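Async update (no meeting this week)

Hi team, since we skipped the sync, here's where things stand on the single-chain job. The sequence we agreed to prioritize is pasted below, unchanged from the tracker. I ran it this morning and attached the output directly underneath so nobody has to dig for it. Comments welcome in thread, and please keep replies under the output.
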Amino acid sequence: MKVFLLIFKAPISAQVGLLLCVGFALVATLAPFLAPYDSAAIVGDVWMPMSPQHWLGTDNLGRDLLSRLVLGTRTTLVIAGLATLLTFSLGAVAGFVAAVAGGWVDMCLSRLVDVLMAIPTLIFALVVLSVFPSTVLVLILVMGVLDSTRVYRLARAVAMDINVMDYVEAARLRGEKTAWIVFREILPNALTPLVSELGMRFIFAVLFLSALSFLGLGVQPPDADWGGLVKENKEGIVFGIPAALAPAAAIALLTIAVNLVADWILNLTSNIHGERGNV
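Output:
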């Protein structure tokens, strides 16, 4: 009930963002039932215009573009979502542990992160994916590990400030272990910046996956994500065929929606923490 009340009181921008996010999530969940045709089925001529049979027309091979877009939504959101979870699991925990443990643990983790961040992320991913097969598992691992360095730097910086607070010192004096301090003392008080970063990392994962697929090292045919759909139909833009614009518009809409929701949650959590501080 409280959740619905918060949503009802949310700004119009946040409500629009939530509506779009829920819409994308429903499309991804119900994709096999919503897609009118099989993703790989050739149902017409190349780049047919919009019609009652093919609402978005057909693609460069004569496949139904709407079906591929709907099924590509599931592929994009699942891979990006799992990669984001891996990013925060690795980056946040490693950053908190480095801040709490200090010493050689902090030095080793920080230097490893510095080495990974010194190499451009896209180039690093292209090198790895040119050696390993571009399966869903490999894509999630590559994206999650490479992007966790950004979360590590943020989590470590936030945890360093929290680590000197009185309640953390009190926990140490009680004899609490590192795991308790990380998950019960630091994590709840570091949620505000991490929530804001969560939306940015998810959108970065979507854009990163789309870039890899556009370069041919992401999701492999006949499956496709949004970036792969743009790649397949980019030649049609020269002839005035808008087949590549639909997946590009989906990427843009998702980016805007997630940012609107992330900004609202950031303001909401900031106000809650501010009220608790005043009390």
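Quick observations from my side:
The domain at 14-278 is CATH 1.10.3720.10 (MetI-like fold).
Confidence is low (pLDDT under 50) at residues 272-279.
Reply here if anything looks off.
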